[in-house]
Amino acid sequence: MKSAKNILQPENRPLKTAVLVMDDCNTLSFAAAVDPMRAANRLAGRPAFDWDYISATTEPPMLTSGLTVPASPLARLDSCDLLLVIAGFQLARHATPSLLAGLRRIAGTGATIAGIDGGPWLMAEAGLLDGRPATTHWEDLENFSARFPDIHCRTDRFTVSDGRLTSGGATPAIEMMLHVIGARHGHGFASRVAGLFLYDGIATPQRAQSRLGHHKHNALTAKANAIMEAALDDPKPLAEIAEALGTSPRSLQQQFRLRLNTTPQDHYLQLRLAEARRLVTDTDLPLMEVAMATGFTSQSSFARAFRTAHDTSARELRQARETAAMSSYPAVQANSHASHSTN
User: Fold this and answer.
1) Which residues 6+ apart lie within 8 Å of 44 measured at CB?
2) Residues of the chain predicted below pLDDT 50
3) What is the bridge-based pairing of β-strands 158-161 and 164-167?
4) Cβ proximity of 73 and 55 under 8 Å
5) Contact call for residues 164 and 113 (beta carbons, < 8 A)
6) pLDDT at residue 198 in the model
7) What does the alpha-carbon distance between residue 288 and residue 324 come to, in Å, rounded to a whole number?
8) pLDDT at res. 157
9) Which of 6, 61, 157, 172 has its CA 20 to 30 A from that of 279?
């Protein structure tokens, strides 16, 4: 097996991409993978991505909307730089021995494999995520963690490791694709691509970038975590969370200690500060608005908590991002070369 080539580095060569579309995948997830590539090609005036559609079988896949995608069978794919695996429903039916063998074969060529929505499940079934960080759609995270104990399951919107990327639903997939674009062509260019389809980098589901790490949620702590993530801007008291779950604050404290080796209060704070870091690095929101969006009532309390959690200030982190975006990446040069995907 070849080592995965690092596709996340400055390069102007078109990224040869295969888009594996499964039956019953969400149309929005499909668009979230393809439209950033189309927008990048349009903005660059040349192919930043060169992609083909791939199917698991000889039949064209049908999306949940009833649309079919003309595609070539995975068995005929010899190689690519990036294989995007987009899946939605009927995952057990899709995880056939031939599909899993095909995923392992392409991974063995050194291609980067990326999963969207249900795609990480198929990657996990193929053994491509063992020992790595990964995520999937937030509704399935608990089952995913239980089904694949050798995977470091995270609540991140998307994850990146050597030769592997995973994302939750459609919006995290957009973020993952913009991450790839930014790494290859600069974050300024990626921001312009995002602007073409009015993506502002702010979303609510699955937004907190905490980690499950080696500790695992149970049903109670997972539900508490969901309540916390839904109210990062207006943190709920522990007693209110416990009451909503039909338990006592003391019992909730015990379960967080037992399952996650932390307190509910500290877990909640880390969720808020992880989201604050994302807003600082991925958006242009004023820092006071970042503080308010993550439940801090004053700039000073936000600044102290942020520095303690991240060993730097929010202002310094944003300045470092802006400096890197201006100086670290090559400019994307337009030329007259056109392809089917530049329109």
Assistant:
1) 185, 189, 332, 333, 334
2) 202-214, 328-343
3) antiparallel
4) yes
5) yes
6) 53
7) 23
8) 85
9) 6
Type of residue numbered 120: P
4: its two tokens: 């995965």
What Rg do the C-alpha atoms of the chain give, in angstroms? Answer: 21
Domains of the chain: 15-196 (3.40.50.880), 219-326 (1.10.10.60)
Q: Tell me, rounded to whole angstroms, the distance of Cα 317 from its chain centroid.
A: 21
Cα–Cα distances (Å) from 277 to 57, 179, 280, in that order, read 42, 16, 5
What would the pLDDT profile of 156-192 be if each residue is shown by its tens digit? 889 999 899 999 888 889 999 999 999 998 888 888 8
- For residue 149, the surrounding DSSP H or E stretch is none
The model's pLDDT over 231-277, given as tens digits with 9 standing for 90+, comes to: 999 999 999 999 999 999 999 999 998 888 889 999 999 899 988 98
Considering only CA atoms, which of 192, 142, 135, 198 is closest in space to residue 168? 135
Gap between the Cα atoms of 179 and 235, Å rounded: 30
Torsion of CA 24, 27, 29, 30, to 10 degrees: 90
Integer Cα distance of 85 and 128 in angstroms: 12
Q: How many angstroms separate the CA atoms of 108 and 100, rounded? A: 12
Q: Alpha helices of 61-96 — where are they, by DSSP H?
A: 91-94
Tokens of 136: 């999937």
Backbone angles phi and psi of 118, in degrees to 5: -85, -5
What per-residue confidence (pLDDT) applies to 139?
73
Q: To which residue do tokens 């053994």 refer? A: 127
Rounded to an integer, what distance in angstroms lies between the CA atom of residue 136 and that of residue 117? 6
List helix spans (H) across 186-313. 187-196, 219-229, 238-245, 249-260, 264-282, 287-293, 299-310
Tokens (6 digits) for 92: 């057990």
Query: How far is residue 186's CA from residue 52's CA, in Å, rounded to a whole number?
Result: 24
Q: What is the model's pLDDT at position 201?
A: 53
